[in-house]
Please model this.
Amino acid sequence: MSSNEGGLDKAKLFSSKESKIATDQFNENRILGCGGQCMVYEGMFPDGKIVAVKKSKTVNEGHLEQFINGIIILS
Model:
């Protein structure tokens, strides 16, 4: 996910492959924070753009809806 209001982009969903590349395979040194259902990583794309990548810890459909709603609220 990334954001741009006052210099921040709107929320965007990235593919798993893009997220892994940006976060060095979700390297623990890139962890910015964690919550009950997700981890937030600092990511950087090849063009130098820095993003926060929110990764769900679960694939439960009920939790997935909460996860997506959390992203919408942040954007």
Observations:
- The longest helix spans residues 61-74.
- The longest strand covers residues 38-44.
- Residues 16-74 form a domain with the Phosphorylase Kinase; domain 1 fold (CATH 3.30.200.20).
- The helical segments are 16-22, 61-74.
